[in-house]
Write a structure and sequence with these properties.
It contains 9 helices and 2 strands, in the order ββααααααααα. The chain is mostly helical and about 210 residues long. It comes from Mycolicibacterium doricum.
Length: about 210
């Protein structure tokens, strides 16, 4: 596959014979991989399926992706960013009433609810978000689910729920508790007699009590 130079007034564009502008094929591959991960999980991502999805040869995939492991690391990051976006959306939809402390806790609870709901509504993407990797991505997550939790704890500090020295412990308590119940519910590990909504409420109530006790 060779690049042709197309002269458009004021600009020069490199257009490859596969029909993608320079850099666009990588994005198309990533989008296709995220779609596959959402439907079937990261283990379903393969070169031939991606090539078919974006309309190029398998060899073209390797010219734009260093390795499947590198692609999986990118897909995992996109999944985490989707999770973070869902958390932010739920937080920002909390009604603007009550005391600053009540509102801070309501917003923080909404973040936790969105986290668990993401695991249940998009289980494969949730798994993909936390796929282990040894690769370092060139850019940090943006938005970052971890940072959303950190920001929520800072709101609680600002509202007087706890001191700033206790903030790191509050983040750890919140993240581990919510991720734990999300993972348990996603895999159906609770007894049939335990109602999902009740389980979520119990954990989120416990997070609040733990933070208030710091």
């Amino acid at each position: 596959m060779h690049a042709n130079i197309v002269n458009i007034p004021g600009k020069l564009f490199a257009v490859k014979s596969d029909g993608y502008h320079h850099g666009a094929l990588h994005e198309a591959i990533l989008d296709a991989a995220v779609t596959e991960a959402t439907k079937s999980g990261s283990q379903a991502i393969g070169v031939r399926a991606l090539a078919k999805a974006v309309g190029v040869s398998p060899s073209a995939i390797y010219r734009h992706v260093p390795s499947i492991d590198a692609l999986l690391a990118e897909v995992s990051q996109v999944a985490r960013q989707h999770l973070a976006a869902r958390m932010i959306e739920r937080r920002e939809n909390v009604p603007k009433h009550g005391t600053p402390l009540d509102r801070a806790f309501a917003r923080f609870r909404a973040v936790g609810q969105a986290y668990v709901e993401f695991a249940l509504s998009d289980p494969h993407l949730f798994d993909t978000a936390f796929t282990p990797t040894t690769l370092t991505l060139p850019k940090p997550d943006g938005p970052s689910a971890w940072q959303v939790v950190v920001d929520g704890v800072q709101e609680l500090v600002d509202a007087g729920a706890l001191g700033s020295a206790a903030a790191p412990d509050a983040v750890l308590i919140a993240w581990s508790s919510v991720h734990g119940i999300a993972s348990i519910l996603r895999r159906g590990l609770l007894m049939d007699t335990v109602i999902t909504d009740h389980a979520i409420d119990v954990v989120l109530d416990g997070v609040r009590r733990s933070i208030e006790a710091l």
